[in-house]
Amino acid sequence: MDSFQFSISICSLIVVSLIVFIVIIRKSENKTSYLWIFLIGAVGWLIAFFIRLIPLQLIHMLMLLLLGVDVSNPENIKPYASHPLLLIWGPIFAGIFEELMRYLCISQFKDIKKDKFRGPFVLGLGWTTGEIIYLYGITLINILSTPDLTWTSEPWVLVAAGPFERLSASILHLSLSFFVFYSIYEKRWSKKYGLWLAILLHFAFDFIIVIWVLSFASLSFVVYIWTLEIAFFTCGIVLALITKYYWIPKQQKTYLIPQNHSSLEEYPNAKE
Predict the structure, then answer these.
(1) How far is the first Cα of the chain from the last one, in angstroms, to the nearest whole number?
(2) For the segment 218-268, what is each residue's pLDDT rounded down to a tens digit?
(3) C-alpha span between 176 and 195 (Å, rounded)
(4) How far apart are CA 104 and CA 254, in angstroms?
(5) 68: left (phi over 0), alpha (psi -120 to 50) or beta
(6) For 145-188, what is each residue's pLDDT tens digit?
(7) How many CB atoms are closer than 10 A to CB 68?
(8) How many other CB atoms are found less than 10 A from the CB of residue 207?
(9) Alpha-carbon dihedral of residues 194, 199, 201, 202, nearest 10 degrees?
(10) Are 260 and 185 a contacting pair, CB within 8 Å?
(11) How many Å apart are CA 128 and CA 174, to the nearest integer?
(12) What is the pLDDT of residues 28-58, one digit of tens each?
């Protein structure tokens, strides 16, 4: 598999996302608002990603110091890259920062709340597209700019598995957008179950990587990567089914009477 095929893979994934987005906005009376929602999702992910890097680096430094590592020499840090005390914080911060930012985006932009399906769906689509372009795009560029790599080398295996992983992550982000969306209409923070579940589920999804690093590092690299991707995809499908057939029907009543607003005039799709 050559670089051209890999380029086609990522482009195809982005094109599919854009086609779905175009279908949604063509059926909408207000095309401009859904374009903004899409962009809000992409920018929201970028902000959450970069903000969490600061406490993540600080906590990693603290953990290394507690382990007695001389952090002044980068070579001393490398053996601890897979240490549980360092690995655990990535999933924790991803769940907290991304879902709180998702909540902020939904709560602050009223256009997202006008439609109980298109609002969270388009936000989630923008969210995952921002992640695809930044994370997978950078990986692809780095691989293509590295000379003398064969298609069986580890970096190429990562790129080959990338579209499959991004598909799983897209399913996750779309599902979690609905969890967070309905939590907007819960008055008390202690009862915003959708938000807390979104944080927990996001953490659990990312924690799969930690499990694989600690438990299956002895597998061959190809088997290691593809079993990890299958685990991601399976969990994503299960979450999507739970979201569609249980969580959304269960939370419909919270949308019917928006509790944070005095009138339903802003919500033409809501029913009294």
Answers:
(1) 56
(2) 888 889 999 999 999 999 999 999 999 999 998 887 665 444 443 334 444
(3) 9
(4) 18
(5) left
(6) 666 655 556 777 777 788 888 899 999 999 999 999 999 887 77
(7) 7
(8) 17
(9) 130
(10) yes
(11) 8
(12) 555 568 888 998 899 899 889 988 988 998 9
**C-alpha–C-alpha distance, residues 113 and 268, integer Å:** 10
| pTM score | 0.81
- CA-derived radius of gyration, the chain: 20
How many alpha carbons lie under 13 Å from residue 184 in its C-beta half-sphere? Answer: 29
Q: Which residues 6+ apart lie within 8 Å of 88 measured at CB?
A: 207, 210
* CA–CA distance, 87 with 89 (Å, rounded to integer): 6
For residue 171, give the H/E element and its range. Answer: helix 154-183
Written as one letter, the residue type at 230 is I
CB 31 within 8 A of CB 25: yes
In the chain, where the domains are located: 3-255
Q: What gap in Å lies between CA 177 and CA 139, rounded to an integer?
A: 26
